[in-house]
Design goal:
The protein contains 10 helices and 16 strands. The protein starts with a helix and ends with a strand. The protein is of the alpha/beta class. The chain is 30% helix and 26% strand. The protein folds into 2 domains: 210 residues, 3-Layer(aba) Sandwich (Rossmann fold), CATH 3.40.50; 135 residues, Beta Barrel (OB fold (Dihydrolipoamide Acetyltransferase, E2P)). Helix 9 links the parallel strand 13 and strand 14. The protein has a 7-stranded mixed sheet. A 7-stranded mixed sheet has the order 12-11-10-13-14-16-15, sandwiched between helices. A two-stranded antiparallel sheet has the order 8-9. This is 23S rRNA (uracil(747)-C(5))-methyltransferase RlmC.
């Protein structure tokens, strides 16, 4: 994949861009194999890969420059800005949208935030596209609410230019720190959920809910989890750290007793909407801490699925699951190192199956799905 910014040395986010893609996959598989070398693995599945360019559904752009000539991209540590509107990881349509957003910034008078001077209002633009219907979700991350009237007044023009722009919001992030967003979200459109669909399962993206950035590989990951669970004839399960419910909703049948747990209320709202759309009667999603929920129960379902953040599920939850010993654990991880540490704590389980999913081409990152079966 050719990238002019990489060639110029202005952006090196894709650290492995010069490495042949087959070598990238081999290196990731080798690292995963080494991390799990201390555990017998009954079956290794072939890695799953997708497109090498245009695979992202989301752009996180730092806004810099001036109100008349804004730049959308990133800042180096020395404060120098790089415009990334031509990044080949984004879908082709984004190249048409970014110029409109720059024009809108000028029309609305949204002064880009200057980090060195701690002045200005517009910090970031977050743009997401649904692969299902082409709908767009746009978030403006502002330092304060002072520019909201101008933003609201100018918004009809942008909506006219982008008919597929379905969800717009403003996030308030007042702190002078490298934090992407704040807690306060202000809806600027009536619709506040963007519909996506993987494998005929409706999923929804709200402004503050996490969603996978590689739809093609994410769909394969969810479908694989669904197939592995179907083999086990499961009637009850927990989906811990469930996000918008992608795993649980793929794995549940009309008869499955499913409980999904996620700390984010925004994500839970999405999961509930999906369950309603699917007509599932025995499903509930709750906005709670996953570890606290699980360890507060004296019994467990047949299967527990975990999809934790990079830190893993942690020793407390590992020891609980090892003691309660549900028949099947399905572990989806975005950090194989912490997953391996967690598996070391699960003394009563054996690894039945492992598969790598290359969600992040040209980087060292990947996702992995591991099926663990109770040993005794």
């Amino acid at each position: 994949m050719h990238c002019p910014q990489y060639t110029a040395g202005t952006c090196r986010s894709c650290q492995w861009l010069e490495k042949p893609y087959a070598s990238q996959l081999a290196d990731k598989q080798r690292e995963l194999t080494d991390l799990l070398a201390g555990f017998p693995v009954a079956q290794w599945r072939e890695p799953v890969a997708g497109e090498q360019r245009g695979f992202r559904n989301k752009a996180k752009m730092v806004v810099s420059g001036s109100v008349e000539r804004p730049l959308l991209g990133m800042l180096h540590r020395d404060g120098s800005a790089v415009d990334l509107c031509d990044c080949p990881l984004y879908p082709p349509r984004f190249a048409e949208i970014f110029p409109l957003l720059k024009t809108f910034i000028a029309r609305a008078g949204l002064t880009p935030y200057n980090v060195a001077r701690k002045r200005g209002e517009l910090k970031h633009l977050l743009l997401t596209q649904s692969q299902y219907n082409g709908g767009l979700l746009l978030r403006f991350v502002l330092r304060s609410e002072s520019k909201l009237p101008q933003l609201r007044d100018a918004l009809p023009w942008l909506l006219q230019q982008l008919p597929d722009l379905q969800v717009v919001s403003a996030n308030i992030q007042p702190v002078h720190m490298a934090i992407l967003e704040g807690e306060q979200e202000i809806a600027l459109t009536e619709q506040q959920a963007l519909e996506e669909q993987f494998n005929q399962v409706p999923l929804f993206i709200r402004p503050q809910s996490f969603f996978q950035t590689n739809p093609q590989v994410a769909a394969a990951l969810y479908a694989t989890a669904r197939d592995w669970v179907a083999e086990r004839h499961i009637s009850s399960m927990w989906d811990l750290f469930c996000g918008v419910g992608g795993f649980g909703l793929h794995c549940a049948t009309a008869e499955t007793q499913l409980t999904g747990i996620e700390i984010s209320a925004e994500a839970i709202a999405c999961a509930r909407l999906s369950a309603q759309r699917l007509g599932l009667q025995h499903v509930e999603f709750k906005a709670l801490d996953s570890t606290g929920f699980a360890t507060g129960h004296d019994s467990v379902p047949q299967l527990v699925l975990v999809n934790p953040p990079r830190r893993g599920i942690g020793r407390e939850l590992c020891h609980y699951l090892d003691r309660m010993a549900p028949g099947v654990l399905l572990y989806s991880s975005c950090n194989a190192q912490t997953m391996a540490k967690d598996i070391a704590e699960l003394k009563n389980y054996r690894i039945a199956r492992v598969q790598l999913f290359d969600m992040f081409p040209h980087t060292a990152h990947y996702e992995v799905l591991t099926l663990l079966i109770r040993a005794v």
